[in-house]
# Entry
Amino acid sequence: MPHVLVLVDHDGERVHKSTRELMAAARRLGDPAAVVVGTPGTAARLAESLARYGATTVHAAESTDAAEYLATPAVDALQLAVREISPAAVLVSATADGNEVAGRLAARLDAGLLIDAVDLDSSGVATQIVFGGSYTVRSQVTRGVPVITVRPGAFEPEEHPGQAVRRTLALPAADPAASARVTARRSAPAGDRPGLTEASVVVSGGRGVGGADGFKVVEELADALGGAVGASRAAVDAGYYPHQFQVGQTGKSVSPQLYVALGISGAIQHLAGMQTSKTIVAVNKDPEAPILGLADYAVVGDLFAVAPQLTQEVTARRTAG
# Structure
């Protein structure tokens, strides 16, 4: 089986869910080969987790300053790995950072690039949602090693235990004149909820929530379901909720098992970021709201009456179970 390179998203101690999803996608094409970029010792800490989800090889691209530069070390590592094993494809998570790495790598390799795939078949044909969600297309790279970014949530992680061979990639020293260096880090306030792109359940609020205080009902339902909180662009622009929680074309794209939209009309910008969710539930008092036509389950009603009932019922069933 040919190897498929997977760029590992991690925090230095654990592998992110998006990488476990990439492993499942990679197995459609061949044997997953993980590329870990970090400081010395990172690959050793992550190797067991990567092997559990199917990595047959773990390429360690480590240096003391690997975490001090944006994108460049990851591009360097993937380029070295491509030259070493001639993979069937390179898969990267379709985040802001991942898309930049993939674009730069494709340019270096003079290879084709596919962005934000939501599905991938065994022949390398990717499914994408394009033009703000208006069309579904199938695309395939016809030049060089395919470089593909995959939308978080598009694949379900699957354990595939095995033994991973560890190899070393000698990262070149970054050129400070040609690379963006990290000068400081500031942690975002962390809560108990899962990350927006890693959550299996997302509950989002829109302009219909009415204000920042109205997001309490969104948060309560999300907590009852063990999910993440999202927001539409209209809600974010109005100052109801912080920008980092925006779902949509200019925010984050999500594809959870369950997406609940409260007071969101369903502008095309928002639909582009969530319409690949496995099950969509929408609550809106406007029977003509576009999102109701997309939803698997639609409730026409006041979200402040409906959402608390949902929260109460979910809580009661969890307690009883």
The first strand starts at residue 3 and ends at 7. DSSP finds nine helices and 14 strands in the chain.
